[in-house]
Write a structure and sequence with these properties.
mainly beta, 5-stranded mixed barrel, 0% helix, globular
């Protein structure tokens, strides 16, 4: 299966997220972050981060790909 790339500005729907409060050693410099699952158009589902996560974004919210951090997509909720 060929992996399709997506770029900053891509929009999707927030399926779920969780806040990591005690990071594994590889992320020790980032002790508090949120991991999200986002549905993208075309039936793709990706795992990335969501920022900001306080206040908590609502599930089902539209999010946009803001940037990549070390190859990981970082999504931001759009105002509703």
């Amino acid at each position: 299966m060929r992996e399709e790339k997506f770029e900053a500005g891509a929009r999707g729907t927030l399926v779920t997220f969780t806040v990591i409060r005690k990071a594994p050693a590889a992320f020790a410099l980032e002790p508090l972050y949120a991991v999200a699952i986002v549905d993208l158009p075309g039936g793709r589902r990706v795992v990335g981060r969501i920022e900001p996560f306080e206040p908590a974004p609502r599930l089902g919210a539209t999010v946009t790909l803001a940037r990549f951090a070390k190859g990981t997509p970082v999504f931001a909720p759009l105002p509703h």
